[in-house]
Amino acid sequence: MVVTDAGEARGYRPSATMPFVAEFRRQASRRRTQLALGFMVLLPLIILIAFQFDSGGDDDNGRNEFASLVELATSGGLNFTLFSIFVSASFLLVVVVALFCGDTVASEASWGSLRYLLAIPVPRARLLTVKLVVALAYSALALLLLAGTALLAGTLRYGWSPLRSTVAAELEPTEGLLRLLAVLGYLAVVLLVVAGLAFLLSVITDAALGAVGGAVLLWILSSILDQITALGALRDFLPTHFSTAWLGLLSTPVQTDDVVRGCISAISYATLFWGLAFWRFTRKDITS
Amino acid sequence: MTSPSPAAWFRRALPTRRRAIAAAVVVVLLAAAVTWAVWPQGPGVRTESAMLTVRSGPSGDQPVNLDTTLYLPDDASSGRKVPAVLLAHGFGGTKESVRSDAEEFAGRGYAVLTWTARGFGRSGGEIHLDNPDYEVRDAERLLDWLAARPEVRTDAAGDPKVGVVGGSYGGGLALLLAAQDRRVDAIVPMITWNDLSRAFLPESTGGAPTEGVFKKGWAGLFFGGGGNVGSGPAGLSGATAAQPQGAPASAGPPSPGPGAGPGTGPGGAPAGAADPSCGRFAADVCAAYLRIATTGRADQAAVDLLRRSSPAGVLDRIKAPTLLVQGEADTLFPLGEADANARGIAATGTPVRVAWFTGGHDGGSGPRSDSDRVKFLTVQWLDHYVKGEGDAPGDDFTWSRIAGFDALDRGLVATGFRRADYPGLTGNARREVTVAGPAQPIANPPNGNPAAISSIPFAGGLASLLDGVAGDVPGQHAQFESTPLTEAVDVAGAPTVSLRAASPTGEAVLFVKLYDVDPDGAATLPNGLVAPIRLTGLPQQVQDARPVTVTLPGIVRRVEAGHRLRLVVATSDQAYTTPAAPTVYTVAADGAVSLPTVSGEPIPTAATIWRWVLAGLLAAIVIGLVVVVALVRRRHRRQDRSVHPEYADTPLAVRALRKEYADGFVAVSNVDFEVHPGQVVGLLGPNGAGKTTTLRVLMGLTQPTAGEIYVFGRRLVPGSPVLSRIGALVEGPGFLPHLSGLDNLKAYWRATGRPWEDAQFDAALEIAGLGDSVHRRIKNYSHGMRQRLAIAQAMLGLPELLVLDEPTDGLDPPQIAEMRRVLQRYATDGRAVLVSSHLLAEVEQTCTHAVVVNKGRIVASGPVEEIVGESPSVLFDVTDPVAARAVLDRLHGVRVLPESDGQLVVDTNGTARSEVVAELVRAGIGVDRVVPRRRLEDAFLALVGENSRGSGDR
């Protein structure tokens, strides 16, 4: 075997280890990835079919101004997409993002393949970076698949109509599409908290289920605490406090205050969690 | 390790202690945050409640009991005097209605006197509607009382440093008191009136109150609120309508109009009130109300009575700097009332500042940003003019506009604006919008029923903002509509419009409203405000009618581009008294609606700051990333790339390796060995001897506590590139269960990023010997198959050093034999193999060299033969073991090792075996067999001792 001067085997370069494409394919081959992405496509279709059973009943879906999202869901493709996002944002997307980001390192640890990757050697920081970027890419893909399918199916079924809501004037389809993209963008930013938390847990524990479940549980805990108004200003520090601020993007004029604060909160938390994850992983003894 | 040294204890305690410190820091931070959130703000406040008897009335000799509470800052005393605030409540309230505001002011260093106005709650007397002889004189006596308090700062003897604050009824009192008593240093009247007769009998073409249209909805509520016999303002108490401000009123002190609505007082019963039709109202007030409510018209006497309770006539006597706060969502006292007050007070040169907010009698305290602004302005005003702190507040005008719903708490969101000068209700620019439509006949319903709905008192601004309550009755209204606006108009002020009307009776009562109609056709009546007009001397035909100019109530609204304006003229309105006789009027609108606009700059809100924070955060993250990456690169460049000359050609050299775990357990205490090319080295030791830990350090999975590892002379640390020359199987196989064996190998090689052709898959697969099973998924593999695949993976790329941990685990005997051959073959061409095992036979048969470890230390190392050759023991098979033992014990230096089954294992310790045999035979003991113990097992046992417990049990 020919050896280069730096002491490594021929053809080995730390920056060439664990290519993004390889990791992407590695994750794509997993059944949970396929199922999660498949469900993102399936969900809007299920909702669409469910709406076909609409008996025209007049039951009240809630009293707040945004309950109208439900009633308006069938008024056009954009509204249908908005509804699909609305119903999945609070839990489904959280679980999916936690799955992609929480499972990625912990599952390698539980299979025992993590130590072989590190013995290649893939530099630890590089391993985490690749894992994180690919997990985030899959999370984004899930979000886009959900919105894309809903938009396509909704438009085919209900037509290309303006975006309606009772809080704001009707938005022209192009303007509505922009708002929808802004909503998706904000949701993606908010979900970074879940991504950060799940990833940190993924690095700390060897149990993939623990990382995913832990992230979802903490998210739910934060949501519950957010319901307790007695906490006052402390609620602003909860990672979920601004998770519904995207509704403000639908009003006219657009309310960005809470969106901006939500971005600050989410990015801070995500940076903190990722920073801890890298700090921990580059120092820890791999015993799995 | 039973008695740890202090140093070891300290080392062990260190990580836990560090963890404890971190945990303590987190706990302290959390506790601090919670404390900060729940700690009552400001210094402590003490209260003194008292029933004061003051003398008032026209001649100042009628005693009346007033229920008072004085709020004092804890540190106020005769030595440390504080300025005072007289805090008045709204109509129907009591001193309790303003308690939170009082506590807030007291917390800011004011002595705050609250009292229940006469005619309400537990106070005595009758309601005179802020009459200068009664309520206002009561307040004067309270000023006397304040001046006598030792804690209260004074300007002169009997003249306290005092500001008067109040909303609605309390605001009216503030204005009237400031006009009557020069001792008042500053006033903050909120959502209050200028002319009570005009407020209850408005006429929007400029007519006198005697011509006004009676605002029966509000008047009834107030009369009911103050009039119920015996129970004080119980007319509406308990009903939800009795809480007009709702929750928002208590949100931000000093919320405008605290307790402005009736019916919140306790039912302390003054005994005297006997007239069931008047309740606690003074007889003259009651009589005036009854007259107006009966006819819907006010006579001059009633107007005079109301005027006496109005600041309108005495504004020129107000010298106290005045902050006027008025609500936009207020159908009772619209913006015009504050406008009139502002002009009247400013005319004499008294400092006046005006602020509009989006709440009011209909809208409560408005959104958070509004109540915060009002609070800030109030405190700033009092601090400067009463306490004497801070710069002069100036006289710039601030106002706000509803911008939409808050997505988070579902409340309203307002945008604040400011402008240097107060433009009044006429704006600083105007915009004409033409409304068109034919002259339309409209019917006046008999007795005003059915009536259009514009606003419902206390229904709140929300209802009128949504399509909510506003509704017109078909046939009873005419509408004139504009074309869609080409650009948005920011209306701020009172729009005007010109109308013509005809009536068969010569008279008409009409209600003029301006709707904002969105492209969908949904019409919104801003804040439910309408302009009632009473026209007289009208012709029969509309073409003969002369145009009249109607001034609509002041509004603040942005009419978006694409929206239309709709002018509606209705004959009825539920909130007003209309003529009882049915009539048909004809109305026509001429030309344009003139919209006043005000330009101002938005008040920077926290949102702007947050945007900068976000930008700063992103920048900080980017800079932080760049710095971290640069530091890592730098450290990487500085990495020790030197080659240890001694070990340059040695595949592996381990030097003084030590690994101590966080809990203090020493897995490897001192390990030294080398692996040279061509060698198959066996790392032999009982379970827990430290073999696996050594290999973990060798693979860069674990940081050693001390010592070095050199691979081809290069120092090995976690992630060293030289690791790429080592192939490993450590702690069992690790594969992706959902992939086939072959795919796993490919995925692994892909992760190395090395050239495909270097992998030598065929050679590796041949070693694995899995046949077609390589295409099956790993999850269906047996243990042995995985083990073989793992060895194949370790051999991918034919690394120069192969490290295998228990490689024969799970293999059957033929496979073990095959594996031996493979390993021996592998250690050619300069390659080397390191095998760890606890199976002695395996090492003896496979390895050229052995390293024996026990309890984290090397006990022997060298060529297998050498280690085995050192074995000094001999196995004797004798006829009489007991006798033999006795014989051997006599021999000097010879030691019998415990062994069962009648065999003796003897450590000859240098004594020749022949001599030992001769000695036994001489003693008459038959020797069946003498076997030199050449097996490694002996060596192993001899080296590690007989204790079969692993070092892991230490």
Gist?
The complex is a heterodimer of chains A (288) and B (954). Chain A has helices spanning 20-28, 31-52, 68-72, 77-89, 92-111, 113-119, 124-158, 173-204, 208-227, 257-281, and strands at 163-165, 168-171. Chain A is mainly alpha-helical and 288 residues long.
Q: Which terms would index this structure?
A:
heterodimer, A: 288 residues, mainly alpha, two-stranded antiparallel sheet, B: 954 residues, alpha+beta, Rossmann fold, Jelly Rolls, eight-stranded mixed β-sheet, 39 strands, ABC-type transporter activity (chain A), transmembrane (chain A), membrane (chain A), transmembrane helix (chain A)
Instruction: Give me the number of helical elements of chain A.
Output: 10
Count of structural domains of chain A: 1
In the CATH hierarchy, the third-tier topology of the largest domain in chain B is known as Rossmann fold
Biggest sheet: strand arrangement of chain B: 1-2-4-3-7-8-9-10
Shape of chain A: globular
Looking at CATH, the homologous superfamily of the largest domain in chain B is Alpha/Beta hydrolase fold, catalytic domain
Please tally the helical runs of chain B, counting DSSP H or I stretches of 4 or more residues.
22
Mean pLDDT of chain B: 82
Keywords (chain A): Membrane, Transmembrane, Transmembrane helix
Pfam families (chain A): ABC2_membrane_2
Transmembrane segments (chain A): 35-53, 82-106, 127-156, 176-200, 207-225, 259-279
Organism (chain A): Micromonospora saelicesensis
Structure write-up:
The complex is a heterodimer of chains A (288) and B (954). By secondary structure, chain A is an all-alpha fold. Chain A has one domain. Helices cover 65% and strands 2% of the residues of chain A. Chain A is built from ten helices and two strands; from the N terminus they run αααααααββααα. Chain A has helices spanning 20-28, 31-52, 68-72, 77-89, 92-111, 113-119, 124-158, 173-204, 208-227, 257-281; strands spanning 163-165, 168-171. Chain A has a two-stranded antiparallel sheet with strand order 1-2. In chain A, helix 4 crosses helix 7 (124-158), helix 5 (92-111) runs antiparallel to helix 7 and helix 5 packs parallel to helix 8. The two termini of chain A are 31 Å apart. Chain B is α+β, with helices and mostly antiparallel strands. In chain B, helix 3 (135-148) crosses helix 4. The N and C termini of chain B lie close together (8 Å). In chain B, the strands form nine sheets. Chain B has an eight-stranded mixed sheet, sandwiched between helices. Chain B has six domains: 1-39; 45-199 and 208-352, 3-Layer(aba) Sandwich (Rossmann fold), CATH 3.40.50.1820; 428-602, Galactose-binding domain-like (Jelly Rolls), CATH 2.60.120; 608-638; 645-865, 3-Layer(aba) Sandwich (Rossmann fold), CATH 3.40.50; 872-933, EIF_2_alpha (Alpha-Beta Plaits), CATH 3.30.70.1130. Chain B has 22 helices and 39 strands. The interface between A and B is large, with 77 and 74 residues.
